[in-house]
Amino acid sequence: MTHRPIGEPGPPRGLRPHPVDAPGLWSDPPEPAQVDPAVLGALLDRHGWRRRGGAAGRYSRWTPPGPGHAGTSLLVPESRAFPDCEDLIGEALTALARSSTPSAREVLVSLAVPSDEIRWWRDVPSGPAGAASWTVEEQLRGAARLMLLAGALAARARAGYYGARHRRPAAASLDSILVGPAPGGRQLTAFVPVPAGRPLAVRLHQALYAAREAVDYQRATGGMDAFDGAVGAGVSHELIEAVVALVRGTEGARVGVQWSPAAGVPDGCAASAEPVEFSPGDLPVLREASARYLREEPSVPVRITGTVVRMRRSGPRGAGTVRVRVLAGAEIPHVRMSLDEEDYRIAGHAHLVGLPIRVHGRLESRGGFRRLTQAAKVVPVQVDDAERDRLMKSLHENLDFFEEACSGD
Q1: Domains defined along the chain, listed by start
Q2: Which of 20, 33, 215, 364 shows its CA 20 to 30 Å from the CA of 314?
Q3: 52 versus 290: which is more confidently predicted?
Q4: Residue by residue, what is the 3-state secondary structure of 338-389?
């Protein structure tokens, strides 16, 4: 008989919606006094607005991209030295807020939340009137989230395969990322705030280029060696799976990273770089690399401290299986282990008196680093009274577990 563990984490987090579509996340344009005119001009240029002249050295005139916007234009001063700088910026921000052009909203978001922008493009067949199926858009959003999660994992540590390691803090780091609409499932933009998210953006940028080079090397030579060195740049099983999800079912896909004009270019990165492209012809190599990372990531020796949340054995005596909520020693939320009769008894008694345990073993890569093998040296760990009271409360709220642990069934 098994019981649901105490404190089981909820379902995986998703990306935050585009701030314009989420009430309360973003509503008003930034204050004109807070906007650097050079940054505003750089963002307009990035998002396809056209510079149509102006007064040299004083201000420039910008019109929206694409047809159907006749009569709309923005006057943007060249610098704050222009006498009416703040008034012109205020008028430009108001015009952007009222504009129906999607890029206008993206400019405002980048001004309100200085962000690096990550863009995905997928070449997918068009449906009637340029529409695409619901599934196509969901595939793009799902692949983008997997890729951001892989970048967040690589920003914390380097590994060919992470499994459950670092996943919870990496997923939590995505909460600050804003995501735009994905019209037709062909293009998506994520705004990664610079203070918290730049390490993710930098690592993902470097990892994508390393993955592209490793694929090219394999296709040219037949060797997979380049994927070993690419781990240091952030390439992993998780990143490769994200690229596969992005490319699958398309005629090709691209990913590009553009740095926040307000924050500048990070060290070691080019000011501008072409998006990284992958094609269906790359999929066999990518799948081989993904399986290789999964197969070859070694187990890790660890000393884990955690609270027992589940125990099970087939009879009143002998070895048993224990599930532990990890407090320290490994970047995973829970781990399972098989214990001999004596260690199983110690684990059960520690739980009944409200104490965590400490155990040595090897975190096994098979199964996603969720299992501890060669588990031994189980000892109770002393905690302060407040923590013990909290653990005892959890115990009494799960009396079925209490009975199970006492009986050994």
Answers
A1: 16-101 (no CATH), 113-297 (no CATH), 300-407 (2.40.50.590)
A2: 364
A3: 290
A4: EECHHHHHHHHHHHHCCCCEEEEEEEECCCCCCEEEEEEEEEECCCCHHHHH
